[in-house]
Amino acid sequence: MTKPQDKLRGWAAARKAILSGLRFTSLRLRLVVVFGLVALTAAVSASGIAYWLNREAVLTRTQDAVLRDFQQEMQNRASALPVHPTQDELQHTAGQMGTSSQRFSVLLVAEDANGKTVTGNSDLDTFTLEDVPESLRTAVNKKQSVSGGNKHAYHLYWQRVTEGGKPYLVGGAKVIGGGPTGYMLKSLEPEAKDLNSLAWSLGIATGLALIGSALLAQAAATTVLKPVHRLGIAARRLGEGKLDTRLRVSGTDELADLSRTFNRTAESLEKRVADMSARDEASRRFVADMSHELRTPLTAITAVTEVLEEELDAETGSVDPMIEPAVRLVVSETRRLNDLVENLMEVTRFDAGTARLVLDHVDIADQITACIDARAWLDAVDLDAERGNICRLDPRRLDVILANLIGNALKHGGSPVRVSVRTEAEDLVIEVRDHGPGIPEDVLPHVFDRFYKASASRPRSEGSGLGLSIALENAHIHGGEITAANSLKGGAVFTLRLPRDPSPLIAEDEGQNGHGTEGNA
Predict the structure, then answer these.
(1) Membrane-spanning regions, if any (predicted)?
(2) Residue range of the domain that includes 248
(3) Which residue from 285, 296, 474, 479 has the highest number of Cβ atoms inside 10 Å of its Cβ?
(4) How many structural domains comprise the chain?
(5) Are residues 28 and 168 in the same domain?
(6) How far separated are the first and last CA of the chain, in Å rounded?
């Protein structure tokens, strides 16, 4: 049965995938946007040019036909009127002119015999002088000088106007030699409707072009990004350690070359890692075998040195005073060699991944006290810990960590060493602070390195150079961490942070690696 939190995580992952696909940093989205912008620009430009050319062609054709017909009517009918016509004559002639093939409204203006202005309208006074722009009337009635380049004193003029949101063509001309002035009004609404239909058609074509370009971009992006996506998945698998990952290669384009390069790189990497793993395994096996082989003679040597040490401590005089320093040196170095072999064995177990936790309920204050007491450090260590702080840890490995941290503080910082314990949420925090000179800044990043010596001039010391490294590994196997720093009050501070119960972390890690864990009842 699916848990609610699993469903929430599934929805969150799906939403994250969708949002990541819609980010502008997505190559797919950028390809679609670029294709769309190019197609939109091309379609809008082509549609705009086509609309403008068609608009001018339609309006010019209609305009020329209307003005030509109006001019013909003025010559045939208006010029036949007397110089001073009556209003009835103007009205009759205007009505005849309005019935021409272009069906425009006509307004005739003249002076009768009494000098009074009379007008004739083909549309029952719906077209008046107020409908004619002032500038057009002025141009029509303006008499021009006659010359070789200008044979007539009056000319035909026209102008496009908009009334009530509808386009009109207004034209005007005066009868040459005397007679009425004629004005024409032609509605361009049919042409405007045709142009609107053309604009809608071009807009639909532009939209279809945009949709087509988006689909084309999607297809192109899929073609380009599918190999890239496969390459990304393969790279992630390679990063996860699956060095046998290879890509299926087809084609001869750049993406195919990239896939071949990836395969060659993965093959080379797999070979190098296999070689390094083999050498590393051989080195670990050598160290383990050497440590194991050394334990047998060391056992005998240790037994002999213990007898010699007992003779020295008994002061029976059985040991020659001249060789007593040498005997003590042998005892000390044998003990040091024994510690080194044990540490090497522990390191090889960590490197091989065979180190295991044996968890038990531990009173931290009692554990630290036992560690200090077993090594006779009670007078040199101040403990700040409350009893009853129970954690589920590996007592032996915790003892190793504490012994290394406290012993290192006593050796390099001097007493008193202060050990404090506190809890933070689900973590146990143990601080070990000394009162020495502190750790040099250039040494801090290397204090947990194996066999690291702070001074190159003193490569030999009492320790094995593995203590802090082993302490860190024991913290890691618990799911914890150790950090080193210098206190503002002086001295070095090592901070151990462990989960109070590492069982869930250990179980999760074992589920992934297929290992088991021991535990005490």
Answers:
(1) 31-53
(2) 243-355
(3) 474
(4) 3
(5) yes
(6) 32
Q: Which two tokens stand for residue 226?
A: 């599918």
pLDDT number for residue 366: 92
CB-based burial, 114-126: b 16+ in 10 Å, e otherwise: eeeebbbbbeeee
pTM here?
0.45
DSSP per-residue string spanning 119-180: EEETTTTSS-GGGS-HHHHHHHH------SS---S---EEEEEEETTEEEEEEEEE-TTS--
Whole-number Å distance between alpha carbons of 272 and 260: 18
Number of residues assigned to the chain: 521
- CATH number for the domain spanning 350: value is 1.10.287
Does 178 reside within a domain?
A: yes
Read off the tokens for 514. 């297929």
Asked whether the bond before 85 is cis by omega within 30 degrees of 0, the reply is no
Judge whether 359 and 396 are in contact, CB under 8 Å.
no
What is the mean pLDDT, run by run of 10 residues, along the chain of 521 residues?
Answer: 50 54 58 75 80 78 86 84 84 85 85 84 77 87 79 84 85 83 86 80 80 77 76 86 84 80 88 82 67 70 75 67 76 72 67 75 92 88 90 89 90 85 90 88 85 53 70 88 88 92 70 46 31
